[in-house]
Structures are given as structure tokens and as C-alpha cells.
Amino acid sequence: MAKHTVTLIPGDGIGPEIVAAMCRVVEATGVDIEWEVADAGAHLMDEHGTPLPDYVIESIKKNKVAIKGPVTTPVGTGFRSVNVALRKALDLYTNLRPSFSIEGTGARYSDVDLVLVRENTEDLYAGIEFEEGSAEAAELIKFCEEKGAGTIRLDSGISLKPISVTGSQRIVRWAFEYALKNNRKKVTAVHKANILKHSDGLFLREAREVAKEYEGRIEFEDRIVDACCMGLVLNPANFDVLVLPNLYGDIVSDLCAGLIGGLGIAPGANIGAECAVFEPVHGSAPIHAGKNKANPTAEILSAILMLRHIGEDEAADRILAAIRAVLGEGTHVTYDIKRTLTGSIDGAVGTAEYADAIIAKL
């Protein structure tokens, strides 16, 4: 049996609890994993001056594979997202977010099977911003006016939206290759090219060019992002693999999570040419930290993606079957699932007890 060393980032908020539950489930399969703990989060600011110390990046570069819990990101002020920083530092250009139905979650749909592929390094998340009132913002406003690009109010904050040929080609090609390897039938490129001619327009143009390489093997279509959202809600079965620029991918992936019961069961992976970091889509929910109540399903499903990435498909299949069994029975589920199913949290179990129930099914 192969031994795997995996960087483990517990995170903050509910992160350490759900990560602990995930580790126990993975270990119970018998897979030989050594966890190399490399902590990140706001609680490290005083000691390191950053929520993402260099040793975290170094550990991931060495081990090539990491799994993390959620890390709190301040809204509007403070440091930038640790998740975004990791993706940029390691060029994790693909964000993979599957959404599939599991019986017993109380979801509005029962037959969803979607895969969202999000470009992870460009678009508005590139972090190229100019603060309102700054000399740089004023200079950019003047430049745009002089070039006839348009008038921007002087009291504006400005964020730039770069989308490149290179970034668009490689994410669309990744989506098509994923579709081929996983017996998927169709790739849908999602955009707003009708309005954003030189950014989303470029993305769509490159998507169409890459799609030609797969003609006769994988069907291709494109959808304007707002129409795509409506279509997903009306009939998610019309979609298979979706590929999107960064911002739309973030938003639409949450919509897809809503189709299957919420962020508590939405896994994610960030994948580059050299390294991969796996994480749940949801946030750190600090209000629930330390209460043994958080739902670790998304973290465990992210571990399933990790196990498949390192070639441990049998263990991944067993965990998924165990999750389906526990949720299907509905007797040992966390408060969020119990409330959705019954309207009450009576009879709900804690994070650790839910993990125990999954382990018992392995």
C-alpha cells in the first residue's frame, strides 16, 4: 500500500472540528496517510504578521497535495482571502466544484449531477484594485477619459477584470479533458460576452476555439450567465460540465450547491500543474466554532476528491457509499440536515458523532 504525505490546514472557526472529523473518516478506510499540519488563518496574524505563513506554501510545494478547513476572510477590510492567496501562489488555476444529489439532504431536486470548473487566477479576483480617493485611482480615471474609454466618477473605487488568452484556453481545455476522462457528454461555457466584449468576449472566443479540438467527442454550448442561472434552477438536468471565469464560477457554484441542499454538502478542489488543495466551499462560521455541531460532509466529500486525485479510488467509493447510507437513514445527522428534513433540530447529532456514524458504515 502506497504511503501519502498530505499537508493538513485545519483553518479557523469550525475548521478544526470538521477537519478532525474528516481525518478520522479517511484514516478509518485504512489508507496510509501522514498528515503534515501547516496552520493558516487570522489567529496567526499577531505571531507571523500574515494569515498565510511561508511554511504553508513550502509544505504544499513539497507534498503536492493539501486539504484544508475554511479560513475566515474579513469583509471589506483587512487581509485578502487566504484561499485566493494560495491559488495565486501555487497557480492553482482550476477550481473544481461538483454538485450531485444525495438522498436525505432535503434538497429541492433529486437528480442533480453537475460539475463546475472555475478559472481560479484571473478576472476580478486578480486583486488589481485602486482605492477611492487615491492618486492611482485619479490617474486611471483621467487615463480612461483621455482615451475615450468612458467617464468614471471621481469618487469611485476601481477593480480591474483581466482575462487572458492563456488563462481562458487552459481552463476550457481542462474542462474538456475532465469531461473525457469522466464520461461526461457536454461542456457549457458561461459568460457575459454580450456586454463585456473584450474580457468575457475573449473567454468565449477562446472557448469556441478549444471546443473545436473535441468535436464529435464532447458536445459544446455557451450560455450568458444570467440565462444560465435561470436554466439551472428550471432544469439542472440540461447541464453537465460548466466552465466559467472566476467571479461567475464563484457565484454559480453556490447556486449549484443550493440545488443539492446547500454549502454544507458542497466539496471543492483547487488544482494546478504541480499541486492540488482540497477544501469545502463553505465558510468558517465562527459563530458555531467549538460547539461540535457543524456539518463536516463538505469537508469529507472534499477528501473524497483528494483520495481520487492520489489514486485511492476504492477508499473514496467506500466513504461516499457510507455518507449516502447515513444521510439516507437520517437518524445520525447534524442539526442543519435534521432541521431541513423535519423542521426541528431534535435528534440531531454532533460533528464527531456524525463522523462516527459514517465510520461505522465503512
What brief labels describe this structure?
10-stranded mixed beta sheet, 362 residues, two-stranded antiparallel ribbon, 12 strands
Outline the secondary-structure elements.
Elements: E1 3-9, H1 15-28, E2 32-37, H2 45-48, H3 54-63, E3 65-68, H4 82-89, E4 94-100, E5 113-119, E6 129-130, H5 135-146, E7 158-159, H6 165-181, E8 186-191, H7 200-211, E9 219-224, H8 225-234, E10 241-244, H9 246-260, E11 267-271, E12 276-280, H10 297-309, H11 313-329, H12 335-342, H13 351-361
Parallel strand pairs: 1-2, 1-3, 3-12, 5-10, 8-9, 8-10
Antiparallel strand pairs: 4-5, 4-11, 6-7, 11-12
Helix pairs in contact: 1-10, 1-13, 6-7, 8-9, 10-11, 11-13
Report what the structure shows.
This protein has 362 residues and is of the alpha/beta class. The chain is 42% helix and 17% strand. It contains 13 helices and twelve strands. It has helices at 15-28, 45-48, 54-63, 82-89, 135-146, 165-181, 200-211, 225-234, 246-260, 297-309, 313-329, 335-342, 351-361; strands at residues 3-9, 32-37, 65-68, 94-100, 113-119, 129-130, 158-159, 186-191, 219-224, 241-244, 267-271, 276-280. It has a ten-stranded mixed sheet with strand order 2-1-3-12-11-4-5-10-8-9, sandwiched between helices. Helix 6 packs across helix 7 (200-211) and helix 10 packs antiparallel against helix 11 (313-329). The chain is globular and about 65 Å long.
